[in-house]
Specification:
The chain has 10 helices and 11 strands. With 241 residues, the chain is an alpha/beta fold. Strand 8 and strand 9 form a beta hairpin.
Length: 241
């Protein structure tokens, strides 16, 4: 998994995003993801690619008694650890490198991190192993239409207004290099079939699939409606039964 987040230029730009400053309520997907969050009261939670630790803290607010957040960015973890306590622990560790002990966690959550992973199936198998029976795997990944976007950008009219979102090479999976926050970022494109059938083949039961949609408040903000009228994120909840 590439680590652009410790690039000072990139991190400075990222730190200015609304989700970085204001937390979950400023994240466009949170309105939908929050509804998929299971009851974690008295339970244990593993966060893959925890970033600033927002989901870790939310799990504690919901009654989780043990939370571990993993991330490969020292800068991200530095921000997260400002709220580290007895319930929440953070570890510098890649998603692929964690040991995934058997039947250890009640919830594994991952927000906007899995599109950096080349072998999703390997991660799925490890998550299935580490969940307790009845456990939930809840994740938000960049939408395949977004990762298959040509340059992940619009085709613009002469006046600069966006015309359409181009998609090419959808079934050619693997690495994509795009421009994000002024830096070149490497991501991995996975088709919808890979994302969903990969879970089923591991034994998960998929209980919810949602495409993140902006709220009316977000659409009403000046200049935001065009930016948000294409699928960006895919929210999935799967259970180990």
């Amino acid at each position: 998994m590439a680590n652009e987040y410790d690039n000072p230029k990139f991190f400075e730009q990222y730190s200015q995003m609304s989700r970085s400053k204001q937390g979950l309520e400023a994240a466009g997907e949170w309105r939908q993801l929050k509804k998929l969050f299971p009851d974690v009261s008295g339970g244990s939670v593993l966060d893959l690619g925890c970033g600033y630790g927002w989901h870790c803290r939310y799990a504690v607010e919901r009654g989780a008694v043990r939370v571990l957040g993993l991330d490969i960015s020292e800068k991200m973890l530095s921000e997260a650890k400002s709220s580290e306590g007895e319930t929440v622990a953070y570890r510098l560790c890649g998603i692929e490198n964690y040991e995934y002990p058997g039947e250890e966690w009640d919830l594994v959550v991952s927000n906007l991190a899995l599109h950096y992973i080349e072998d999703l199936g390997a991660v799925y198998r490890k998550v299935f192993k580490t969940l307790r029976p009845g456990g939930v795997f809840l994740f938000n990944i960049e939408h395949p239409v977004f990762t298959a976007g040509v340059g992940q950008d619009w085709v613009y009219a002469p006046d600069g207004s966006p015309l359409y979102w181009p998609v090419d090479g959808y079934f050619t999976t693997g690495e994509r290099v795009t421009n994000f926050l002024g830096c070149k970022v490497k991501k991995q494109h996975h088709t919808l079939t890979q994302i969903l059938n990969g879970l089923i083949s591991c034994g998960f039961v998929i209980t919810a699939v949602e495409e993140a949609q902006p709220s009316e408040d977000m659409l009403s903000q000046p200049g935001m409606s065009d930016e948000l009228r294409r699928p960006m994120m895919l929210l999935v909840r799967a259970e180990k039964r």
